[in-house]
Each structure stands twice: as structure tokens, then as C-alpha cells.
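Q: What would this chain look like folded?
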Amino acid sequence: MAEEFESKAESGASLTYPQQASAIRKNGYLNINNRPCKVLEVSTAKTGKHGHAKCHFVAIDIFNGKKLDDIVPSSHNCDVPHVSRTDYQLLYITDDEFVSLLTDNGNTKDDLKLPNDDNLWKQITEGHEQGKDLLVTVLSAMGEEQIVAVKDIGAK
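A: My prediction, written as C-alpha cells:
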């Protein structure tokens, strides 16, 4: 009799992909403590008495800015998050600080809030109040999204 099993995986692409620790470089991405991080420093320790060289990674969480580090044998695989940057045109900002963004296919994306970064928040809200056409850059990784940049593309 065949065993039945229930899949816990979500449909669609995986949130991460494997990459050998020794192939991960500065400014690349890495999953540390289940958080998507940008690598700031990589150092490799010499082979120890147990035969593995170790890679020490110092990285910063791409969403909350926290510094994290990890030590992995250089021959082992690390999880690398799929990170994407997408530009959207800002349509409007709701009273509860959600933004409405225009996607490439003409639909709207209404599930993002204004960023926590005070400087970026101010640039977006003031530009919007002045009637500027704004393009916001959204960073996506591991099921999270956040506005990370804004640029003025001219007056309406």
C-alpha cells in the first residue's frame, strides 16, 4: 500500500536557493537566522584540526538593518534568499499610511505601508503632497516587502 503524505510547501518558487559558503561574496545576499541579509564582510579561517576551513559572514538584515553574523564550513551550502527590486508609480497614500502603487500590468498594489525610515517617509509624503510623480522602489525577499527608495519622475 502506498503511503500518503501531505506537502507543507507553498506553490511557486522557493524563498531561497543553496550556494556553497566559499562562493558567497561581499555585497551578496545570505539567509542568517531565517532573515534575508546583505553580506558586509567575509573572512575565511584556515583548515582546523577537524579538516574544514570556515567562512565567517558579517551581514545586515535588508529590512530592519540589524547586524548578524554566521560561521559556516566553506564546503557546506548556505541558503541565499531570492531578492528582487521593483519600481512602482505611487498613486496615493491612505490615512492609515498604506500606499497604492501602479503595477506594470495596470493593476494596483495596496498592501504596503510607508517605510519606517524617517527620511524616506518624509520624501514620499512631502513629494506626494506637492503633486510630484513619484517612483518607489520595493525590495522583496522571503515573503517580505518594503519600500527602500523613491525618485521624482516629474510633475503631474
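The first strand starts at residue 16 and ends at 20.
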